[in-house]
Amino acid sequence: MKVRVFSSEQEATAACAAHIATEVRAKPELVLGLPSGRSPLNVYRELVALHAQGALDLSRAMSFNLDEFLGLPPDDASSFRAYMDRHLFQHVNLLPERIHFLDGSAPEAESECARYDSAVEKAGGLDVAMLGIGPNGHIAFNEPGDALVATCHRALLSRETRQGLAAFFGNDATRVPLAALTMGMAALMQARQVLLLAFGASKAAAVTAMLHGPVSPQCPASFLQLHRDVVLWLDSAAASGLEQR
Ligand SMILES: O=P(O)(O)OC[C@H]1O[C@](O)(CO)[C@@H](O)[C@@H]1O
Fold first, then answer.
1. Which stretches make up the Glucosamine/galactosamine-6-phosphate isomerase domain (predicted)?
2. Residue with CA closest to ligand 1 atom 10
3. pLDDT-derived band of residue 243, with 50, 70 and 90 as boundaries?
4. Domains identified in the chain, total number
5. Is 212 part of any domain?
């Protein structure tokens, strides 16, 4: 894994957005995997700014978001779909028909997951998957456990993960849904490039475990050690555990 440490989150996210814009210029039909949560917010802000300056044309690109809360329809203000509309899609020229999302309100989770896996496959897989990481090492909503799931699936969210998402639910963790639909490990591991964002001291232990711990389902992000093209975009606080080694 390539580790890029910046003195601030702002610098890291600007560099990551510039990298994405370069990838889109090299391949305008780029298939992007996109995360939600706090970490990518500044990347989205920078992408919107690049688009406004005429430096980013997403008209031929395609996106697949990584996950969605179970039970939330796309128009629920707390859904990841609404988050993406607010922070990125309303401000750039990705075509609506090229934006892909899991529908958390689909009547059957299993067929919704199968539909999504086939859509990713039909697109030829992800070219660039941007990921966040949970303090417990989760990527997308692949939570730590005895085993990981390769395919898109319904995942129960850990108490820690729900706590971390409380800010998106009026700071009330009890309002965070108990489960989500998520891309599985295979689609993430098959992405041609992975860009992982981690900022702040609360991510330091997970970053160290991802890079230097055993490859284990107890830290899903550790599987990225087996991927040939991963770039970590860290601020110095998230990288602090690496310096102490
Ligand atoms: O960026 P945050 O809010 O710390 O969240 C970490 C990760 O956990 C999630 O909330 C679950 O996928 C992601 O959206 C994010 O990548």
1. 10-233
2. 37
3. confident
4. 1
5. no
44 C-beta closer than 6 A to ligand 1? no
User: Of these residues, 68, 143, 153, 235, which one is catalytic?
Assistant: 143
ipTM value, please give it. Answer: 0.93
Q: How far is Cα 132 from Cα 138, in angstroms, rounded to an integer? A: 8
Q: What type of residue sits at position 77? A: A
Q: Which of 46, 67, 127, 235 is catalytic?
A: 67
Q: How far is the CA of 39 from the centre of ligand 1 (A)?
A: 7
Q: Tens of pLDDT along 130-187?
A: 999 999 999 999 999 999 999 999 999 999 999 999 999 999 999 999 999 999 999 9
Write the CATH number for 61: 3.40.50.1360
Reported as a single tens digit per residue, the pLDDT across 79-113 is 999 999 999 999 999 999 999 999 999 999 999 99
Range of the domain at 40: 2-190+225-233
- 158 assigned to some structural domain: yes
d(CA 180, CA 177) in angstroms, rounded, equals 7
Is 202 a member of any domain? no
Structural contact between residues 233 and 3, judged by C-beta atoms closer than 8 angstroms: no
Q: Which of 36, 157, 159, 210 for a ligand 1 pocket mutation test, highest count of atoms within 8 Å of Cβ?
A: 36
Separation of CA 161 and ligand 1 centre (Å):
8
Does residue 243 form part of some domain? no
Kindly give, in sequence order, each residue whose CB lies less than 8 Å from that of residue 11, ignoring residues fewer than 6 positions away: 235
Instruction: Give the separation between CA 199 and CA 43, rounded to whole angstroms.
Output: 12
